[in-house]
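Collaborator request, handled under Task 6.
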Amino acid sequence: MCLAVPGRVTRILERDGTRMAVMDFGGVEKDVCLEYLPDLRVDEYAIVHVGFALQRLDEESARKTLGLFEELGLLQEEFGDPWEAAAASGPALEWAAADAAAGAASAAATASAEADR
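Structure tokens returned to the collaborator:
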């Protein structure tokens, strides 16, 4: 089953020209595209479906919905065990890898430019 789940924005970044966020879904963090809600800010809530933030949501409604999903076991069904997911590959690892690749590309370009002098 694929649910539209409320999540809280914990961090906003740009990736390849696309506005992205790391969002918290009851303890599980996932990368989410903010192109449909470009003015969403850190600590705000939104409903997310298939990786896209679709609609802003107030905190009370988000918390109630997350509580119900958790009670019904739907968060576990949708995201699996949060500790397993975090250990396997969390957004922090993806961001770190992207940052490292960008740094390496920048260093290579600088070295190449200096060699051409």
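The cover message to the collaborator said: "The mean pLDDT is 77. The first strand starts at residue 5 and ends at 15. Please let us know whether this matches your experimental observations."
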